[in-house]
Amino acid sequence: MPVTELGTSERLLEELRGWVEHETPTTDAAAINGLMDKAEAGLRAVGAVIERIPGTKGFGDHLVARTPGAGKPVLVAGHLDTVWDHGTLANTIPFRVEGEKAYGPGIYDMKAGSFFAFHAVREILRQKVATRSPITLLLTSDEEVGSGTSRALIEREAAGACAVLIPEPAGGAEKCCVTARKGVGRFTIRVQGRSAHAGGNWQDGASAVVTLARLIGQIHALVDLPGGTTTNCAPVWGGTRPNVIPNEAGCEVDFRVATLEDGARIEAAIKAMAGPQPEGTTVHVEGGLNRPPMEEGPGNLALYAQAKAIAARLGYDLPKQHRGGGSDGNFTAAMGIPTLDGLGCSGAGAHAEFEHILWRELAPRCGTLCELLETLG
């Protein structure tokens, strides 16, 4: 049991509701900064040392809050942005409680978990609870689009940490935390062809669509389900009219890999598709591996063993899983820093209109995170 008094699930849900009802689409820096202001004010009020990093490239700010102490800190990192546009709360997913479930845009991914982290750090400071190591809380604004403006900050903070905790949502019906994640990569493929009349001058054209279709087949052939490698080509575009040989076509490619070696292999295979093609077209390829794999090492497993023992004392089981989706934990684990992910609330529906948490689990799940923050080091 954590030394820190965190309150009941009812109490946590009441404050979490305010975070959920403050809509924060990744594309609206001002909206995200408004919620960041709220978190900053709460942490400043109890003595946290605050660093606010202004947003860049149209994204919101990032917030670093530190507790006193010597030695390597425990880093707990979450994001405030969601995939949901303004108006979702009013028109699609109103905040509501139905039995064991609390619904709302971003409540599962990952406002509940980010609120956990904020609440635990705030209460540790408010109640002057002694922790084995200092704590660094990091809240970012662009995770849902790849963490392009926050990655360097995440890696900077992780480099000096003894452990990293990621309160992304707990997964599946088993309510698992996460000890490994696939690496995630993206490519954009553009094909330049040559237009011609599809009837009278067919031989003068060079179909960008034909080239793209061939390449999509090759990319699909890279899939290795037993080995953990998947590819997906979507969206796909090309051509203007049925009677015109298409001079342009393209697609985006998502790929997932279990190891860095597989990531390098897939990157090399897709980049090799660039250049002049047999059909008389030319292919341009942009992109690569965005998040390295979070591989399950001994450091991650040691953190998991501690979390599982804490959860048992709090009255629930905490299985582990490997997950196909990426998170900011991919970056820190790839640096060799022990990382445990999926420490947020149970529920379902990330990025879906039935997004919800199992709200009665707020207190015990937050308790596990809090005791890890008190005892790691």
UniProtKB/TrEMBL annotation:
The active site is at 81, 143 (proton acceptor). The keyword Hydrolase applies. SUPFAM superfamilies: Bacterial exopeptidase dimerisation domain (SSF55031), Zn-dependent exopeptidases (SSF53187). Residues 179-276 form the Peptidase M20 dimerisation domain. InterPro entries: ArgE/DapE_CS (IPR001261), Bact_exopeptidase_dim_dom (IPR036264), Pept_M20_glutamate_carboxypep (IPR017150), Peptidase_M20 (IPR002933), Peptidase_M20_dimer (IPR011650), Peptidase_M20A (IPR050072). CDD domains: M20_CPDG2. Keywords: Carboxypeptidase, Hydrolase, Metal-binding, Protease, Zinc. It comes from the Bacteria. Its cofactor is Zn(2+). One of its GO terms (molecular function) is carboxypeptidase activity. This is Glutamate carboxypeptidase. It comes from Teichococcus rhizosphaerae.
